[in-house]
Amino acid sequence: MGVARRRAHEHRNYTYEANWRRGGEASSEDLIPWSTHEFGFVEFSDAFSTGSSLMPQKKNPDMAELTRGKTGRLYGKLLSILTTLKALRSSYNRDMQEDKEALFDSVDTVRAALEVFSAMLPTIETNRARMEAAASDPNLLATDVAEYLAKKGTPFCKAHEIVGKLVAHGAKTKLPLNQISIAELKKFPHLFDVDVANLFDFAVRLQRGLQSGLPRRETSQSRSRAGENCLVTGRRDRCTRGGSLPLRAAAATVRRVKQSNLVHDGEEWETISSERHFGNAHLEVVTDHVRTPTRELPRTWTVVHRKAAVIIAPVTRDGKIVLIHQERVPIRAAIWEMPSGQIDNVVEPDQREIKAVALSELREEAGYELSKDGELIALGHYFSSPGFTDERGFFFLARPVEPCATYVRDESEAILDCREFSMEELRRMIVANQISDANTLSMWARLVAGGFLSPERR
């Protein structure tokens, strides 16, 4: 291993451990004392804590403590790798085989800890009253008092000294800052006036967001909502990179995507949490934590949420099926397929709205429409790839169809050709793997199984 590669290897290990320290361990170190009787800010669910063997009233935050405890194990693995790397000469050294055990164990440890930790977080209950009481300590606003004086012309270093003496005076007289009288305050500098009382209204301070480092309430809430799915990335702003939508717009798109694909919790399926990684007008990539009917602990799955789609099998009066030849960028090829398209701008579409989209796609992609005596038959739906996405496709048989009289192909579409194929031609193309589109193959199977087509040679 060369010097540059070795340094890169060390950097990756430092980064890996630093991210863990900033995430799982740091969160545990906050949550554990917050759950004690002295703080009382949060309470852990019984599912992720145990009772004390000695004190009946005590609830031990087991999962948080175990997560924090894993840090020592990970640091030990890191130290073993760094020690092995120390002073290695350039080129490959057999010593490097020792990094495998440490790496594999670290990955397994982090995965297990994150699975439990991500399931635990949504179950934590917060005690808002205790938090507000703790945050209302007037001495927390001592910096604001110094800024108050600075705005009135006092140099900040002098204002800092004055407020320090004021705090000491309050401690001596056992008075918090907000209970020291104006007359007493004026003994320090004459700049104090009655408006100083406004500084100690904590709700006003949160609303105005004037305290250094303290965000406005609405800003804090919006950032919390926007960043809730970026927990694993370490930086919120990554969620707006790569051409994705701004977070607020993406959130609205996510709701449309999730509602339009008609997949919801129910029958003992429960989404515990969802970490969002990317979203645009067509899809969303998330890691869902879902409790299933057969598992007590939630399962973690990366899912691509996509809008529902329609797939149309256009059949002419003489029994031929219309296919389009379309370029597909992801597979770098042009393929023959049945017309299809996503259902846009419709939340919870009913059958009438879905049929309208199907007829629209038939016209726009193939340049065909139903004959005056034609019918559009719903053939149910299917999931295109249930291990990867929740996209649902609605099947329709359109018969008989005929070319649109005034059709002009949209040049922005990637459709190269449109042709009518006999059943025998289509059968041969499927056998020869010239039809490789999942929608078309699934539609063919549905048509054959439903008795609408006969796969026999003729």
Quick check: average pLDDT? Answer: 77
Beta-strand content estimate: 15-25%
Ranges where pLDDT stays below 50 over 5 or more residues in a row are 1-11, 210-261
So what's the oligomer here?
A: single chain
Radius of gyration: 32 Å
Strand arrangement, largest sheet? Answer: 11-8-13-12
Q: Determine the number of helices (DSSP H or I, runs of at least 4 residues).
A: 13
Order of helices and strands: HEEEHHEHHHHHHHEEEEEEEHEEEHH
Gap from first CA to last CA: 66 Å
Tertiary shape: elongated
What does this entry look like structurally?
The protein is an alpha+beta fold. The chain is built from 13 helices and 14 strands. The protein has helices spanning 3-34, 62-85, 99-120, 128-135, 142-151, 156-173, 182-185, 202-208, 217-227, 247-260, 351-366, 423-431, 438-449, and strands at residues 42-43, 50-51, 59-60, 125-126, 270-279, 283-291, 299-306, 309-316, 321-328, 333-337, 340-342, 368-383, 392-403, 415-421. The chain has a four-stranded mixed β-sheet, sandwiched between helices. Strands 5-6-7 form a three-stranded antiparallel β-sheet, sandwiched between helices. Strands 10-9-14 form a three-stranded antiparallel β-sheet. Strand 12 (368-383) and strand 13 (392-403) form a beta hairpin. Helix 1 packs antiparallel against helix 2, helix 2 runs antiparallel to helix 3 (99-120) and helix 5 (142-151) packs across helix 6. The radius of gyration is 32 Å and the shape is elongated. Residues 1-11 and 210-261 have low confidence and may be disordered.
